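Re: that chain you flagged

S.,

Sorry for the slow reply, it's been a week of failed gels. I finally had a moment to sit down with the sequence you sent. For the record, here it is as I used it:
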Amino acid sequence: MIVIYKFDKGVSAVLATVLTFFVWTIKIGGIFMKKLLSLLLVGAVSAMSLVGCQNSGDSGSSGDSDTVTVGLLHSLTGSMAISEQSVRDAELLAISEINATGGVLGKTILYIEEDGASDPSTFATKAEKLVDAENVATVFGCWTSSSRKAVKSIFEDYNALLWYPVQYEGMETSPNIVYTGAAPNQQIVPAIEYLIEEGYENFFLIGSDYVFPRTANMIISAQIEAAGLNVVGEEYADMEQTDFAAIIAKIEAANPDVIINTLNGTGNVSFFKQMSEKNYTADEYMTMSFSIAEEEVSTIGASILEGHMVSWNYYQTTDTPQNESFVSSYKEMFGSSRVTSDPAEAAYCAVYLWKAAVEHAGSFDVDDVLAAIATGKISFDAPEGVVTINGDNQHLAKPVRIGAVATDGLIYEVYSTDSVVEPDPYLYTYDWAVAAGIQPLE
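Prediction finished late last night. Pasting the C-alpha cells below so you have them in one place:
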C-alpha cells in the first residue's frame, strides 16, 4: 500500500503542478529522467494525505479538500503479476495525465494501492479495506473473473464502484461494476466466427481451471456445435501449473485444426515454451488465444508465438492518433522497451471514463456517478476508438480486432469490425446461445 502523509491544504496541488512541469520540460537525463519524474509525479502526489483522506467525507473527497483518493487493486505478486503490472501502470499514466491538466472537478487524484497477490480471498480482503477503511472514491482493479467475483458482493454491500478492465466470460452485470474490457460477443464469439469462416473444423479447448475459461468454453462449445463442427478435446490446468506434458500429449492424440486457449498468467508461458520445445509452431498447431497480449508475447518470446492468433479490441499497432499519443506517453513514463496491450488500454480508458462520469454528475458520490453512467452519454475518445458506456448494462461498446503475432513481438490486425459492437454480456441476441441455456459459474 502507498504510504500517504498529511500536508497543509493546497500543498499537494502545488507539488503536483511543479512535478508536472519538470516531467515535460526537464532535459537532463533524457528518457530515464522523464520516467523517474513521471513516477515521482504519480507516487509523490499519491503520498500526500492519508490522514486527511481517511476522514475526508463521502467517496474519498470532501468539499473543502483539494484532493480525491482512488484505489488500485491488482496482482503485483503471484502468477498473475505478469499480466496485471501493465494494467496498473496504464492507470498510473492516466492519473498523471489527468492531474497534469487540472485533475477531476479541480481536485488532484491521489491513489492507495493494494496487492491482490493473485488470490481471490486476498482481493476480497483488500477490496473491503479500500472501500471501508480507506473510503476511496472508486477502485480500479482485478483481472481474473475469480478475483472479480470475490469482490463483487463487497462493492455491492458498500455501494462502492469498481472499474474492471479485462475481457471476460459475460453472464454478469452489477450496478456497482463498470466493465471496460470485452463482453463475450466482443471477443470470444467473433473469434470463433472468424475461425469457422477460415475453414477450421476441429477445435481443442485448453484453459486455466477457474470461472472465465470454463464459462468461455461453455459458450465456445455451444457455438461450435451449432455450426455442426467438432470439439475434439477440453482440458484445464491449475493456475500455478507448470508441467503441460500430459495436456500436450492429449492435443497430439486429438490432432485438432486449432487450439482455443484460455490459459492465464504464467500458465501461458509454460504451455507455449513446452510446445516450442517439441518444435510445434503455428503451422503444426494454430492457437487462438484470449488472454495473450503484447505483454505476454514479450515474456514468452515472439519467436515462439509468431503466427499464432489472438482476439482483442486493441493492439499497440492500432492506427489512431489517440493510440500514437498513448503508446508514446506509456513508453516515456515506463521505458522504451515496454509495450501496451488491450487490458492496459482498457484500464487507461477506465480512469478517463470515471473522470467523465464524475464531471457529468458534478460529484464524486457513487450514486451520482452511476446516475450519470445510466444516461448512456459517458464516452471517451480512446486509443482503440471512441468507447461509450452502455447505460443499461455498464459495459462498453467496442470494436473487435483479431490479430496475429509477428516477429517483432507486436500484434497486427487480420480482421476488424467496421464499427463498434454493442455489448451483449448474456448473449441474448444469439439463438444458439439462448438454446444452449448457458448459465454463469460462480
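What I noticed first: The chain has two domains: 11-181+319-397, 185-318+399-436.

Talk soon,
D.
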